[in-house]
Amino acid sequence: MRQAGRRRWLAGVLALMLAAMAVIAPGARAQDLGALARLTGDVSLSAGWRSLSVQVPLSQPVPWRTRLLADPPRAVVDFRTLDWGGFDPSSVRLGGAATALRVGNAGGGWTRLVIELSRPMGFDEAGLVTDPETGAARLSLVLSPVSDADFAAQAATLAAVDTGVPGDPLSGGAARAPIGQRPTVIVLDPGHGGVDRGASYGGVNESDIMLTFGRELAEALRRTGRYEVMMTRDTDQFVSLEGRITVAHAAAADIFLSLHADALEGAQAVGATVYTLAEEASDAASAALAERHDRDDMLGGGVDLTGTDDTVASVLMDLARAETAPATERLARALVGAIRGAELRMHRHPWQQAAFSVLKSPSVPSALLEVGFLSSDRDRARLGDRRWRAQMVRALITGLDAWVADEATRAVLR
């Protein structure tokens, strides 16, 4: 998997799979898995008291991404290899804040659904669920009102992110510049928030301290001029697992970094730890952390991503992860090396693996950083020390810079 030839082969296989879904899910009919996905029913739109729900039934799962655009406010969903043939947007009954529905070609094999809105709204929920028996899929979206300022800030940020899709009007018709030749897009994900406080020890809540640390890291990254930073949350609010992953996809992120400061009952865990995705956890403690993170999210009202992929979607996501896995591994090594180089305390096993759902974005190199453990008196004191946090911020930027430089060199050599 780490060899260049292997990566090119996997990329080629992924492209073929995206063009012609060659693996048939149990119970699915072969004719349903042609070169393009198609609609299997009516696109439905329903307006609640404040929310707006959209359902898109598909013959099979496809890659997708969401965006928000301003002037006028619009919610945009792009689909890879989806044929809208035969669909008449005027047949959809509008309601609530939806004033018009349009579909079109976004270029590069992507097609687009545009929902024009009468007032600013943001994605409250967005998820693709597949039927394991038929292989059919359904994209569900829920939009909720946001303030003018919040919508404008989010829409401006997303519109400024180059999608990398040739011919895409959002990218000005040009292909995205290679990494190293443009600001690196990083999504920071301060863990928990809102009703989900995360770990709590000695009067310190994980959600609060990670929001503080996330803001400090974001500001330092922006000051370098080398990074374009988005945060999954910049206030004390709940964001679902699906919502966090959606932000990474919408931003076309180069890196997704989730920030945590957990606790392990009865354990003596001390020091920073970098986690990357694996179906099997490195040890029992890693498995327990992953399980608790996902359980807390579900209790807060989030979407559990576990077990929702059918055979086709699993193969596609595994192939996409196989392509991004080497970059993710290099990211983990770069972060561990930089933190150690700054002589900051790390766990005795500084790089571990676990099935954290928040890392299940197949196309974005993703890592979860336990900055420290609140269950450790020493870590808790360090996390509360602004000077120590500044040292950790500098170390992370060093690690991220090293990773970007390495990826840029590899891109030239390909």
> Which CATH first-tier class of the largest domain would you pick?
Alpha Beta
Under the CATH scheme, which architecture of the largest domain would be assigned? 3-Layer(aba) Sandwich
Low-pLDDT runs of 5+ residues are 1-35, 161-174, 280-320
Strand order of the largest sheet: 14-11-15-18-16-17
Examine the coordinates and then state which fold CATH places here, giving the name of the CATH topology of the largest domain: Aminopeptidase
Largest sheet: 6 strands, mixed
Shape: globular
Instruction: State the assembly state of the protein chains.
Output: single chain
Number of separate domains: 2
Radius of gyration: 21 Å
Helical residue percent band = 25-40%
Query: Please, how many helices?
Result: 8
**β-sheet strand percentage:** 25-35%
Element layout with pairings:
Layout: H1 4-19, E1 37-38, E2 44-47, E3 52-58, E4 64-69, E5 74-80, E6 82-83, E7 98-107, E8 110-117, E9 121-130, E10 137-145, H2 148-160, E11 184-190, E12 200-201, E13 204-205, H3 206-224, E14 227-231, H4 241-250, E15 255-260, E16 272-277, H5 284-299, H6 311-341, E17 346-354, E18 366-370, H7 377-383, H8 386-413
Parallel strand pairs: 1-6, 11-14, 11-15, 15-18, 16-17
Antiparallel strand pairs: 2-3, 3-10, 4-5, 5-8, 7-8, 9-10, 12-13, 16-18
Helix pairs in contact: 1-6, 3-8, 6-8
